[in-house]
Amino acid sequence: MKQRHHFILALLLPIQVALVSIVAKFPQLIETYYSNGIYPFISKLERYALGWLPFSLGDLLYSILVIGLIRWIYFRIKTRFKKPKHWMLEGLAALSILYFCFHAFWGLNYYRLPLHQSLEIDHQYSQEELVNFTKQLAQRANELHLNLVENDTVKVDFQFKNSEIRKIAVEGYHNIEHEYPELTYQGRSIKPSLFSIPLTYMGFNGYLNPLTGEAQVNNQIPKFKLPSTTSHEMGHQIGFAKENEANFMACLTTMNHPNPYFKYVGYTFALKYCLGEVNQTDPCEAQNIIGMLNLGIIKNYREVNKFWEQHENPLEPFFKIFYGGYLKANNQPQGIESYNYVVALLVNYFEGEHQL
Fold first, then answer.
1. Which residues does 141 contact at the CB level (< 8 Å), separation at least 6?
2. What pLDDT is recorded for position 178?
3. Are 153 and 142 in contact (CB under 8 A)?
4. Measured at the alpha carbon of residue 192, what is the angle toward residues 186 and 193, in degrees to the nearest 5?
5. What is the pTM of this model?
6. In the prediction, which pLDDT does 80 show?
7. Is the model's pLDDT at 338 over the cut of 60?
């Protein structure tokens, strides 16, 4: 009977893959019936059910899965891979269940409409628009910086506890839900990752557990990065699976945040992406804009760069390659480089009725 169940589950795996491939060709249907239909109920239920836990249940599940995998491999080696039909069916059955849960609980959001379509934002811009917008960001970042420090040479220090930052981040989503009701965030479920130290050496700020809907934040990163990282993971929670779109959510909610520290983080976060894009097309202009910045802002950027430099290791590039492959497999053909799409969304969002 057990083998029969394994056979059925294993048989369902290629069927699921085929169905997801077919459904992915109809983003409007996914947007309507999953991302704005079923998924909000699933994600809200998960956040209310698990948000009260002071630890990440998702991280514990990951630990159990890894230990179970190691144990499974150990017994396969111990028995010299006898009865291959049995253990292959067993492995495929487990993979089939994980594949189903991943897509049912969150993963189908990878195939929804692009964010510029769902929020009705243009995604084309000229070089002149990009440069002008980046200069405006730099000027506004300078103003926000001077509101928080004594002079322009001092970097902004965040006196908040990490737990306070995770709580305050929710206000950014509350502040824009009147304009975009689909971005409403209810039921906070943001946790410090139990794997913050290994996550640091892998080169990641945080992640969403697609099975539990919990947002995990790397508790080791500089506090200057925590508001944008937290808001980014919350963007994943409300259904924006693509990294570039979650980055835009982080910019949008922090730049519109009532807290001046979060607003400063938002503008400098958006500025970094726009400067990177200007540098690709006009390095001299990018250097001119950098020259406009207060030295204290540069120091905040350097603080983050120094943190990652201190944790560089030979394995980090392999983790980035693996993650880039994961992104490409989930409808992000540019992999990690697809993050630059956030610039197009920013330029066009603030081009119209919204002002910096």
1. 264, 267, 268, 271, 293, 294, 297
2. 87
3. no
4. 115
5. 0.91
6. 64
7. no
